[in-house]
């Protein structure tokens, strides 16, 4: 989708009354559901560490590294990344930073990019990031696009992490395609699951590690 088309659609969606948003989300469910995600090879799961939450994952992220968050919203997780990893650079990508915490935006390590996630990643050199956190559009096509744009931008041995590793097909929330997109990528490309982060609403976070031999 073109940048301006997506921004226009996003602005319209944000301006909708909440009841109308629910109707639109429910209407999406009239389409046939996507197929189930593929079964993950056990070998890609054997070394996975289960953590209490996504903040605990940051204790395993390289300090003084180059990090990226796709989809920032209010900046709560970006604030955690700054506090726990002391990154040399933290690149934040979103179509708007209007609601983001000024403390995050003013931090000396933060670089903001008000644009589409795939457009930003495609302009970055390969192997630039130690950690990329994907928390933008949760639809299946959007997550697939973010994965394809992000996979070569992670350093060998680095982490590609995802918020809301879930399959949701219900009124009020519409469709989350994160689970399906991530599982398909793991099967296709063989990246192992490094961390599985618990969450109270079962909207788990996961992190894949880019194989060192690429």
Describe the structure.
The protein has 214 residues and is an alpha/beta fold. Helices cover 33% and strands 23% of the residues. The strands form two sheets. The chain has an eight-stranded mixed β-sheet with strand order 1-9-10-6-5-2-3-4, with helices on both faces. A hairpin with a 3-residue loop joins strand 7 and strand 8 (174-176). Helix 7 packs parallel to helix 8 (178-189). The model has no long low-confidence stretch (mean pLDDT 89).
Sum up the structure in keywords:
single chain; 214 residues; eight-stranded mixed beta sheet; 8 helices; 10 strands
- The ordered H/E elements are HHEHEHEHEHEHEEEHEE
Structural class: alpha/beta
The amount of beta strand, in percent, is: 15-25%
What is the quaternary state of this protein? single chain
Q: Which term fits the overall shape?
A: globular
Q: How many beta-strand runs?
A: 10
| Main CATH class | Alpha Beta
Radius of gyration in whole Å, from Cα? 17 Å
Measured distance between first and last alpha carbons: 30 Å
Side by side, the strands of the main sheet go: 1-9-10-6-5-2-3-4
Low-confidence stretches: none
Please state the second-level CATH architecture: 3-Layer(aba) Sandwich
Binned, the helix content reads 25-40%
Give the CATH superfamily.
Vaccinia Virus protein VP39
Helical region count? Answer: 8
Show the helix and strand layout.
Elements: H1 3-15, H2 18-28, E1 49-51, H3 54-57, E2 66-70, H4 76-85, E3 89-94, H5 102-105, E4 110-114, H6 117-122, E5 129-134, H7 140-150, E6 154-162, E7 168-170, E8 174-176, H8 178-189, E9 193-197, E10 205-209
Parallel strand pairs: 1-9, 2-3, 2-5, 3-4, 5-6
Antiparallel strand pairs: 6-10, 7-8, 9-10
Helix pairs in contact: 7-8
